[in-house]
Every structure is written in C-alpha cells, then in structure tokens.
C-alpha cells in the first residue's frame, strides 16, 4: 500500500468517480490512476469501487469504510507536514476561510486586513460556503475554517465554536406604510408579501418560530439566501425583506428604509467550524481571536482538550458574552 494510491482513491471520490477528472486533479494520466487503484484492490483482496464497463458506478460498502480511513490518514499526513513546516518557518502556511457573502462583506474585512498585513507570507484564501442542501457543507481540510450563520448539526469530525450573535432587520421602500411604524408587530408584517431566507436557514427558522408562537401565518413571497438579492427585489416592489441586520442597515442610496426587529425575533448564533484533525498553528489562533476576541489561545487550547465532551465545552463558554451584529 502506497500513500499515492490513497491520494488517488480520495481524488476519485472527490471527483464523483470520474477517473479522468481525478487524474487531471492529480496531474497524472488516467491509465496510471486506474492501474494503481487496481493494484491496491488486488493487494487488499476487496473491490473498493463498483464498475459498469470501463466506468466506475459506485463505491462498495467495504470501499466506503476504507475511504473513511483514507481521509483520516491523508489528514494526518497534512498535519505532520504542517507540524514540520511550522518548525522550519512559522511565517509560512495556508489559511482557507469558507463563509457566506454577508459575513465576507460586512464582518471579515477588518480581520483580513489585520491578518494579511501581519502574515504576508501566509496564503490566504476566501471562498464561498456550499449551499445548505449540499451534504457535508463544512470543508474539513488541514487549513480550512468555515464561518457560518446557520446551525451545522452534529458532526463528530468538527470542532464548532460560537463566533457571534446576529439579528434580523426589516427593509421596506421609503414610501411603504410600515416605514411610518417604529416597532411593527408580527401581524403587521404578515399583511405584506415577505422576502426572506430559505426554510432551512437559521434566520428563517427563528422567524417561523416567532410567527407560530403568535398564531400568525406569514406570506413568504420569495425565499433567497443572498440578502442583496432580497433587497433588490424589495426595491422593485415585490414585498418587504427580513434579513440580517448587517445587510439591512446597508441601504444608502437604495430608496429603502431599515427597521429594527429586535423586539420580534431572537438573535441567531453564528459558528466557526474546523476539523478536529487540524494542527492549530499560531497564525490560526491569531486569526480566530482577531475575528472573535473571546476565542483566545488559552480558551482554544482548553477547547481542544475537551472536544470529546459537549457538556464540558458548553461550560467553557459559560459567562462569555458573544458580540452581537
């Protein structure tokens, strides 16, 4: 068994069983990848992939188990390399941040500016998160962090830390009847078509819970994940928009008005997530604390020691006030 063979297995899985695409991603030839996979299967005595003619059609049950271990082994390889690189030169490395458009636009600029100036030799990449419906929406690479404004569910491979709280605000055209009301009620909101987030989004779930509690049925005219798209359609007169306060306040020269909804909806929690297999390096600690000041290095070290116990993790954050946006 060779490490390169394991990398080929992962590349095939990551490229939806397309061996040609996998070979291109590994900068090698398709026959070479197929040969090495065949040699590994012969060595192990099991089929990792199901085949239909010359094409791969699926992953066998034992192949699924093998690939799970392959991903763990390759993550360990990256961790060992990161450990050696930090020892040789702690000023170099990579940081991949996956996040939403709203977070990238309104919350990250200060941290990115600070980080890139302090660590000019660190390769910094800012990338969009995958849609909520996509399986495995949180990237788990050896230098990947995800900052998301929605619940990510249970995942034993992830460390999930509370980053901040975010609130919902209302945007309406300046000549809209609600523009004259400082504190609209849920019943008043329900009188108009509402443009807001998709049902699976945390912000939408908070709205639905509030409406249900009051026995009010909202009229969701349109659901979109991008707050700027919602604001655009509110401008066009399709309804009123309930979105993140960060985006709702950014309405200069738009003909829209922002209305605070803190009296109606509870704040939502945002999270910083990363793989438990990551070797946190000093520049990573620095980035985390620049974005969420409560995530100090000492707290993070305690988190990593207690990561197997959710109850102990919760106690670590008792009494910590999260920033509210």
UniProtKB/TrEMBL annotation:
Say yes or no: keyword Transcription regulation present.
Answer: yes
Upper lineage: Bacteria, Pseudomonadati, Pseudomonadota, Gammaproteobacteria, Vibrionales
- Could you confirm whether the keyword Phosphoprotein appears in this record? no
One of the entry's Gene Ontology molecular-function terms is: DNA-binding transcription factor activity
| Transmembrane spans | none
Keyword vocabulary terms for this entry: DNA-binding, Transcription, Transcription regulation
Organism (species): Veronia pacifica
Q: Name one Pfam family in it.
A: HTH_1
Name the UniProt record assigns to this protein? Transcriptional regulator
Q: Where is the HTH lysR-type domain?
A: 1-59
Among SUPFAM superfamilies, the record links this protein to: Periplasmic binding protein-like II (SSF53850), Winged helix' DNA-binding domain (SSF46785)
Q: Which GO terms describe its biological process?
A: cysteine biosynthetic process
* Superkingdom per UniProt: Bacteria
What family does the Swiss-Prot or TrEMBL record give for this protein? Belongs to the LysR transcriptional regulatory family.
């Amino acid at each position: 068994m060779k490490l390169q063979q394991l990398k080929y297995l992962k590349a095939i899985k990551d490229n939806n069983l397309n061996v040609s695409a996998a070979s291109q991603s590994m900068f090698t030839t398709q026959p070479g990848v197929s040969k090495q996979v065949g040699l590994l299967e012969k060595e192990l005595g099991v089929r990792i992939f199901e085949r239909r003619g010359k094409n791969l059609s699926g992953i066998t049950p034992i192949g699924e188990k093998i690939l799970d271990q392959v991903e763990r082994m390759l993550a360990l390889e990256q961790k060992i390399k990161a450990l050696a690189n930090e020892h040789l030169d702690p000023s170099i490395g990579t940081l991949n941040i996956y996040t939403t458009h709203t977070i990238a636009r309104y919350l990250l600029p200060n941290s990115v500016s600070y980080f890139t100036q302090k660590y000019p030799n660190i390769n910094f990449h800012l990338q969009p998160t995958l849609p909520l419906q996509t399986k495995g929406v949180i990237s788990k690479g050896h230098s990947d962090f995800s900052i998301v404004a929605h619940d990510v569910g249970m995942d034993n491979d992830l460390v999930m830390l509370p980053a901040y709280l975010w609130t919902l605000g209302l945007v309406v055209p300046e000549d809209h009847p609600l523009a004259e009301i400082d504190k609209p009620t849920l019943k008043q909101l329900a009188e108009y078509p509402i443009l807001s987030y998709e049902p699976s989004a945390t912000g939408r779930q908070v709205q639905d819970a509030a409406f249900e509690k009051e026995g009010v049925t909202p009229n969701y005219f349109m659901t979109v994940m991008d707050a700027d798209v919602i604001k655009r359609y509110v401008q066009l007169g399709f309804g009123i928009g309930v979105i993140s306060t960060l985006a709702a306040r950014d309405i200069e020269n738009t003909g829209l008005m922002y209305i605070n909804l803190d009296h109606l909806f509870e704040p939502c929690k945002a999270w910083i997530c990363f793989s438990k297999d990551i070797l946190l390096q000093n520049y990573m600690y620095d980035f985390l604390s620049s974005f969420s000041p409560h995530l100090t290095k000492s707290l993070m070290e305690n988190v990593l020691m207690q990561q197997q116990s959710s109850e102990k993790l919760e106690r670590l954050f008792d009494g910590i006030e999260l920033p509210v946006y």
